[in-house]
Amino acid sequence: MARKSKAEKIVVPEKRSYNAVSIPTEIIINIVMILFCALCIVPFIFVIIISFTSEQSIAQIGYSFTPTSYSLDAYRYAFDMGAALWRSYFNSFFVTVVGTVLSVFVCALYSYALFRRDFKYRRFFTFFSFFTMLFGGGLVPTVVVCKQLLGLTDNYAAVIVPMLCNPFNFIVMRTFFQSSVPEELIEAAAIDGSGEYNTLFKIILPISKPGIATIALLNALAYWNEWYIPMLYIRENSYKPLQQLLMEIQRNVDYLAKNASAMGAEASKALTSTPTQSLRMALVVMVVIPIAFAYPFFQRYIIAGLTVGSVKG
């Protein structure tokens, strides 16, 4: 029987990865993802282009990626408000930061109670939070409670407090605790003499950063984009957030556009000098750009949350 030569190598078939796909399939997936990203990015780029488009170009050819002329009139009109605009920016940032911190704090406390199986009233508070997702008290009782009982009028609390508790976030955070925090860890902490607050803030929350980041991002978006609650409770200009101020600007412009003929020559002249179409897009840009910078701070935690449990030791 002939011996195998040293030069001859034993060919071992390569093991194919469980989630491996063929090259054509991978190309198709990449094309689909590129198209999906384009569907998300291109409209916003289009909005930015229109915000810099002159009213004459919009009147001639409508909305276009290649306008005939550009203009900064929309941004000049918005920035002419001066101190009021920058004050509203500060109000929005303050409400978003403080509201996000407080809402995440409340969410962590409530969700931790729902997560603990040994909590006596766990089922009741789970049903209580879920019930409010299906049925609400209505607008009139809410306004009466907030204004008359709690005194939430013309202050920062009027915007922060009504949005502190979100039942959906409670359910999401509780589910994250159930899938990521082993009960043995809590039992070991209890054996070592750790109290409930110490267990939550020093053991549970440090390993729950992806879930906390997700809830924080959802709350930050909600506080930043909210304009209806400030419209109900805020009348003083010093407390108006950015979204409420921009909504008032847009309403004023729309009012001039609808009633210019009935208000005389002065209103018509004011309307001709007002960038009505490009102003809408400029307001969108002014609202979206600041909150878009928050995504990179949450991205790595959210990605880590998506991979929790994907690797088993």
Brief rundown of the structure:
The chain is mainly α and 313 residues long. It is 70% helix and 0% strand.
Structural key phrases:
2 domains, globular, 16 helices, 313 residues, 70% helix, MetI-like fold
Order of helices and strands: HHHHHHHHHHHHHHHH
Number of domains: 2
- Unreliable segments of 5+ consecutive residues: 308-313
**N-to-C CA distance:** 46 Å
What is the β-strand count? 0
Provide the gyration radius in Å.
Answer: 28 Å
Number of helices, where a helix is a run of at least 4 consecutive DSSP H or I residues: 16
CATH domain fold name of the largest domain: MetI-like fold
Determine the structural class based on helices, strands and strand pairing.
Answer: mainly alpha
As a percent range, the share of helical residues equals: 55-70%
Write the layout of secondary structure elements.
Blueprint: H1 23-51, H2 55-61, H3 73-79, H4 83-115, H5 122-134, H6 139-149, H7 157-160, H8 167-180, H9 183-191, H10 196-204, H11 209-225, H12 228-233, H13 242-263, H14 265-272, H15 276-292, H16 295-306
